[in-house]
Amino acid sequence: MLVVRSAGALRAARSESAAPVGFVPTMGYLHEGHLSLVHAARAECRMVVASIFVNPTQFAPGEDFERYPRDEPHDLALLEGAGVDLVFVPPVEELYSPGDTTRVTVSALSHMLEGARRPGHFDGVATVVAKLFHIVRPDRAYFGQKDAQQLAVIRHMTRDLLLPVTVVGCPTVREPDGLACSSRNVYLSAEQRAQAVALSGGLRAAEAAFAAGERDAEVLRRVARAPIEARPLASIDYLSLADAELLTEIQGRVTGPVLLSMAVAFGATHLLDNTTLRP
Ligand code: PAF
Hints:
- With 279 residues, the protein is an alpha/beta fold.
- It folds into 2 domains: 2-170, Rossmann fold; 183-274, Pantoate-beta-alanine ligase, C-terminal domain (Pantoate--beta-alanine Ligase, Chain: A,domain 2), CATH 3.30.1300.10.
- It has helices at 7-13, 32-44, 72-81, 92-95, 114-117, 121-136, 148-160, 190-195, 197-211, 217-229; strands at 2-4, 21-26, 47-52, 86-88, 140-144, 166-170, 234-243, 258-266, 269-277.
- α2 (32-44) links the parallel β2 (21-26) and β3 (47-52).
- Residues 25-27, 55, 58, 125, 128-129, 147, 150 line the site of pantoate.
């Protein structure tokens, strides 16, 4: 496995003859969720490229950019073990030259849900993914369904900018008790970690109600909220039942595929989870 730190070295190492090239962009501190993306890329592509880059522009001032967990040696060992061919680990200056001001905005999808909670976040995500796609030139790129809004933003950005990349969404990987894998889970205290199971509990409860025929959007939201509201350390940032494509909130009855998504705070840590309900 080759580790490169500059765009020039990446371009030189990316073999033209090894198509399709699969790409797994990450911010490091890897867990099973990231490795499932690598496995999917490995199964479908001749060359697998991963990146490790904690992207400053997707963190607002006061968020956890400085304290975001980092462990490059461990990440590289995991990527090598998973069969990655090439890893791009750029310093910040390699992606953001002095005076960099250009941002990519996917306007229709960036201002609700996570975008309302974290203004500017998706501009940072779309911008860095566009830069990484431009440098790596992958045929296929892999993202987790756990960050459903991010996946929607990246799909739209790729389509709108005519980028020749197939964006692949991969299922959320969970801990044995149902908590979605996330690099931020390490921030949780033991008590918070025990109560964090309520997110997937809310999703499963809503899925069960939906399977039993419930189609009232407000009732489904209420069913999903109940297990979380029962946990004293959990505070719901938002809980949304929205059109799966447009991310607009559903009023009344559910008739097409909907995304049930939530962000829940445990102290300063905000956890995300979601599921798609299909009539
Ligand atoms: O999901 C992440 O880890 C990041 O948002 C991404 C897509 C690597 C962009 O920095």
